[in-house]
Amino acid sequence: MLNSNNLAEISKQIPTPTFDRKSLKVGMVHVGVGGFHRAHQAFYTHLLQEKENASEWGICGIGLREGDQKIHDILQKQNGMYTLIIKHPDGRIDSQIIGSIIDFKLGYDTPDVVIDQMAHPDTKIVSLTITEGGYNFNPATGEFDFENADIQHELQHPNDPKTIYGFLTAAIKKRKVQGLPAFTVMSCDNIQHNGDVAKEMLLTFAKKQNEELAAYIEKEVSFPNSMVDRITPVTTQADINYLENTYGLKDEWPVTCEPFIQWVIEDNFSNGRPEFEKVGVQFVPDVKPYEKMKLRLLNAGHSVLGILGAIHGHPTINACMEDDLFVTYLRAFMDEEATPILDQLEGIDLTAYKDSLQERFANPNIKDSVSRICSESSAKLPKFLIATIQDNLANAGSIKFATLVIAAWCYYSDKGIDKNGNSIAIIDAMQDQLHQAASKTQSDPLAFIRQESLFGNLINEERFTRIYSDLVQKIYADPDIKKLMIQL
Ligand code: CS2
């Protein structure tokens, strides 16, 4: 069993933290402790703690939803520790125990505990991986969604927060009253201008709740933009069994990931930061071009493979990459549609970047499921893919490769089956709405595109609707997606 008492024994088999975990204080409070946080920020923090005394930068995990109970309970039992299993393309596997998370608190039944942690004098950063959907904006307009019942509740009851916005405002207010410096809000989500978006949304909320506090936030709280990257598939039972069979190690929720890791972030912190540059993090004045490159190539590339792969019946991203047609299609999308609208980045060779993406996607040991990639597409595609279609419409660029993905997404949302009739489990907060819109396609080929909150005004773009309606009707007539991919 992985916990502090057994660490000496475990260290005979697997690297374990060599720094003094007991001396760590919580300097970063992290909301959304999924696999990605544990493979990325918590890993970088662990590396720094291994390298030198960084004892003021321990992490306290926070879960705001009932679903976070499981990870909370497991990490509490394991004294915050977990195994990171890094899987190389050549089959090598490196496992190590990560020790940077030292506490975990749940907000949904005891909000005060979380507010107090965020307002603690030692807390300097509140970081977020709350997913694209967690920011509570309309994907097409980018506007804050005041209709959300939890938001309504916390506007009326500032001491009983439910969403990230209620918690942040309550904690910032408490710090202000106590004369403590404001923390930095550090978004680590896959959203272009993630810091700016976090700031805009928080300010919009705060202005409704407490104008004076909003003015304080605007002045005192920093929101660095960042680009984060590491492919982190969903942990499987096989990963848990692997540790037990290979090392006799019982870890109830390890994390697996690829060897590649990247974090580019703006050096804009209200109250200090870890010296992450010592462990390979890049601090830059403006992260936006990096974010755009990653979202429009990596994340969009994933969605291209994921949606088309789901309909074809490929279970994983690496299975897609074993299929030559998918590789050619992915590259054509990246070269002809995504690249022309990217800014040139000094020191970055886009061809090499795309080559490296292909290698990463093809890693046969990662087995990143197509279902993970397709999950929450309604929150992802507007930013990853639809934005590229819009840019190309404005620049007379090619749109056919991305448009086929949208048409395939419609079929997927309507039928929930692959081309062989096997059912696909769809995970999406907007699933019912997507299904309803898609199911009208046969009488109204553009029905899916009429969802303005996802597609904005694409419905009025004649070039797009022409290509889309042709492709969507062809998929409904014959869902053998490869026939269409070959023709484009
Ligand atoms: C993926 C990302 O969610 C997705 O669709 O594209 O989770 C991706 O694996 C990460 O952003 C990689 O850094």
UniProtKB/TrEMBL annotation:
InterPro entries: 6-PGluconate_DH-like_C_sf (IPR008927), 6PGD_dom2 (IPR013328), Mannitol_DH (IPR000669), Mannitol_DH/Oxidoreductase (IPR050988), Mannitol_DH_C (IPR013118), Mannitol_DH_CS (IPR023027), Mannitol_DH_N (IPR013131), NAD(P)-bd_dom_sf (IPR036291). Residues 28-278 form the Mannitol dehydrogenase N-terminal domain. The lineage of its organism: Bacteria, Pseudomonadati, Bacteroidota, Flavobacteriia, Flavobacteriales. Residues 286-466 form the Mannitol dehydrogenase C-terminal domain. It comes from Maribacter ulvicola. This is Mannitol 2-dehydrogenase. Keywords: NAD, Oxidoreductase. Belongs to the mannitol dehydrogenase family. UxuB subfamily. GO terms for biological process: mannitol metabolic process. One of its GO terms (molecular function) is oxidoreductase activity, acting on the CH-OH group of donors, NAD or NADP as acceptor. PROSITE patterns: MANNITOL_DHGENASE.
